[in-house]
Amino acid sequence: MHRLQFHYTLSRDSSPAMVRNPLLDLLQAVNTHGSISGGARALDLSYRHVWGALKRWEAELGNELVVWEKGQSARLTEFGAKLLWAERQAQARLAPQIEALRSDLERVFAVAFDENAHVATLYASHDDALMALREHALGADAASGNDRLHLDIRFCGSVDAIRGLNEGRCVMAGFHTLQHPAPGSLAERVYKRMLQPGLHKIIGFARRTQGLMVAPGNPLRLYSLTDLANGPARFVNRPLGTGTRVVLDELLAQSELPSSAIRGYEQTEPSHTAAAHAVASGAADVALGIELAARAHGLDFVPLVQENYHLVCLKSALTEPAIAALLKLLQSQRWQERLASMAGYAPQHSGEIQSLRRVLPWWDFARRKK
What we know:
Blueprint: H1 22-33, H2 36-42, H3 47-61, E1 66-67, E2 75-76, H4 78-110, E3 117-124, H5 128-144, E4 148-155, H6 158-166, E5 172-178, H7 186-191, E6 200-214, H8 225-228, E7 235-236, H9 243-254, H10 272-280, E8 286-290, H11 291-296, E9 300-314, H12 321-331, H13 333-340, E10 345-347, E11 353-354, H14 356-359, H15 365-369
Parallel strand pairs: 3-4, 3-5, 7-8
Antiparallel strand pairs: 1-2, 5-9, 6-8, 6-9, 6-10, 6-11
């Protein structure tokens, strides 16, 4: 079976939307004009080009396309005629869908040609507030008529997000730490080597609560990680490299608990939403996650820690239009009110540019000199 591939072109032409295939254009021209030379002239192509293209297509498809005899007009083989018939059927049946697809593509590409539209690619640890920010950006733009900001968000682990920033695959990364990460902590060992004062800048985003997502009524009476240790509760974890996994391991170290004491420590789900679903479906009894995900799945939530969700970019990117538009959006009262209305969230220096030394304790050079 031969597979189809679709291609499109960018043009100022306003011709009707069609999915075109060069072979079928050749066959139609030859069929209409009765010769390869006539078809070539109609298409403003050379005889040699059309002849060579037909031969290449015959070899690719394994069938003859055109036959002719001396003194006779060229005609399509049965296979060639069936290809043209299939083309007419497809165009007749799919014209509305093709037009709708072109309209969708034109709306997307209109951003590229709009001087007032900006796109910011963000790699980030999974966070529901970022999804709300993406929706809010489009709504705020439509309401205000100001520059339009499109957030292209790719959710991944915190470590992968910062790595993507440093490798130039995005302009900003999102990661989170405990509200007061201690010097020498796991968070320092994970993130310090990836961030550099003077090169990177933190942009304040949100404070959020992480805790235990448990079944309604908390039937197993789980109020701390100690309650999980060596007990029957089935835990579901987050993958290695995610910010929540770092937070969990920090909390276990603070409680002097080995990971082996948590039943299900090796079982993982890719997001807060997936972990909450695992608990809600009965596949697990408890997970560490954000309050918003727990409430959305009808679960009870036991708060454990406050953490800061940071956005980080290169200092050199602060002057880019997309970053400037994002800072303005984060500082707006409408966005901060919306963020505060989300369960477990609160604005935290939202939209403020901060240095790594101010936000994190790992570069306290004054202390180091003492």
